[in-house]
Amino acid sequence: xxxxxESKPYISFLQAESKHKGIFKWILSTDHxxxxxxxxxxxxxxxxxxxxxxxxxxxxxxxxxxxxxxxQTYNTxxxxxxxxxxxxxxxxxxxxxFGNFMLPLQIGARDVAFPRLNLLSWWLYVIGxxxxxxxxxxxxxxxxxxxxxxxxxxxxxxxxxxxxLFAAFILGFSxxxxxxxxxxxxxxxxxxxxxxxxxxxxxxxxYSTAWVQVIATPVVGITIILVIVERxxxxxxxxxxxxxxxxxFQHLFWIYSHPAVYIMILPAMGAVSEIIPTFAKRTIFGYKxxxxxxxxxxxxxxxxxxxxxxxTGISDVSRFIFSLLTxxxxxxxxxxxxxxxxxxYKGSITPGVPLLFVMMFxxxxxxxxxxxxxxxxxxxxxxxxxxxxxxxxxxxxxFGGTVMIFFAALxxxxxxxxxxxxxxxxxxxxxxxxxxxxNMLYFTMFILGYEGMPRRYWDYLPQFQTLQVISTVGxxxxxxxxxxxxxxxxxxxxxxxxxxxNPWGGKTLEWTIPSPPPVHNFDEIPVIxxxxxxxxxxxxx
Amino acid sequence: MSDTVIKNHAENxxxxxxxxxxxxxKMGMWLFLFTEILLFGGxxxxxxxxxxxxxxxxxxxxxxxxxxxGTFNTIILLTSSLTMALSIAAMQRSRKGLxxxxxxxxxxxxxxxxxxxxxxWSAKFEHGLYPRSDVLLDKPRxxxxxxxxxxxxxxxxxxxxxxxxxxxxxxxxxxxxxxxTPTNYVKLENAGLYWHLVDLIWIFLFPLxxxxx
Lengths: 541, 213
Fold this sequence. Notes:
Chain A is mainly alpha-helical. Chain A has one domain (about 10-510): Up-down Bundle (Cytochrome C Oxidase, Chain A). In chain A, about 65% of the residues lie in helices and about 0% in strands. Chain A contains 18 helices and no strands. Chain B is mainly α and about 210 residues long. Chain B contains 8 helices and no strands. Chain B starts with a helix and ends with a helix. The interface of A and B includes residues 176, 183, 187, 226 and 242 of A.
């Protein structure tokens, strides 16, 4: 059937002409596929900037005392690393790139519900990014508060705080609009016959994420605005010298920023649920459990924010409750991991590059998740709070979790997006390098943190040096792996062999149309009669 | 509702390339309004926390506010919501002129609200009741915070009034140019929803600042 489709001549979205010329064909396009790729381009630029900051920080930690630059520079570097990686890379991450590109394809739609709003979201993303970058070069110097902008320091510091905060507000607005767009799209534009429980699990994950974006982001929006206003007019709301309570800032900040963690991880989990059935040639195990666990994670995620504040002096009762609720998140997360592993069981597994990334994800994310329990329980939290242990934990979860799946999804959907295949052998080498480098870089941090190395410190005691050196060398290997991976993909975009409509043997709708997809996606809107991972014939054999 | 769906479906068949989904458009708008409520929700949460912490000072500080102007502004906004709703009703009944007139009235009322607000705030400034003023710094911290919250919340609300007015100007142009028509007025309805939200938030701000004293 796929041969028939491909033999038909068509204009792919990459080549399509519009009333605009040159670069405007892209930056004024409302095509969800082009917007997805534009997000990808923007995000990769920021990712490289973020990696550079991380690389320099690790280089500074090679020796105790000053290695390359002074403490103030280090402060701005970890702040910028955090802001760029979180607000400009991981939060938009999978939803903005693959959500935009794949959501309409996977539900059998021609575009998202509000294409122009979608373009506006991208523009807001770009403007927010520009503001963040511009703030680096203004008088006063780059922001040095850490990405959490805690008051009262963020009210007192002379560095540029207001502009990057405003940038974060704009990025939040972009995220809200994307969320509204996706929720409406899922409700209104599913192909005939595609009931909620016939949707691919990536769609479920994007749908849950979109709700978190809609519900959580406004709260951080107002919090950020209040800090800007506070700096300009001294309303006193967060300023202890004027009667305000800085702890309320932390509450409001984490009411958003904890659910934001699930904005980052849920779409990644959705992509895993796509990749595993494709490479195991089996129907996903426990479809409904995975779908519901996405919603459960999104829901419980709202009620755990104060676990970031265990050492701030909040009451024992609230600490106890928040600790308990934090443990509950492990249940739906565990449900997912077990279902993925069960899907692989007795499958006919092809170890393609996306699946290797997924395997790495399951390994790293399990470590990240289990150390999360260490941090979630009160007694151990007090011991390792604000140490490298926390840094290691969230890098295992965010980098080992979300970013690895970002890379996996990039390889998985690359043939669909660009119509070309990448070099598998080189890609596998990069997977190996990333795995080794990652664990050298971050696992040492668990030990360092456990031994008492505080996070965000520019200097350290001599006895930590061996581990710091291992960690720094790990960062070089990791970066080499990442660059090799991007080099390989870049080469594939230009010189790769052309991809068929369905190179991996996937069963969801995006694989039924040619690669790269035509402008209007589907010649005829498909009618859905069975679930998304229907390997019925193969399994009966 | 099912009627509109069928109608929309029929229209979709007629013009293949123009995708129109009024129900979806309204759904998106409601989601957006939801985020607006959450945006103010953060401020209401802060208000609650500080009201509990400094209940006595809030009580005293609230006496300085002018209930007369507050009440007048409440009436203005409620009336503007009425004219907004009537403007949509007029459009549904194909009375373009009346719809434009009612929309213009809504805008004039909104301007009235802002003018009142201007006089109210300048009176406060004359009495030295603004952040960082010597008068306020001498007062207990709870009273300082009351004004902090007052300016933050009514200020953000005023920004929303201005945003709403901007939207209404667009709607006026759209009706004028027949982009909004008696068969396709979902933009006007969504603008109306936004305007009612602006009104609704004021309905909560008014008692919290002016009446609890």
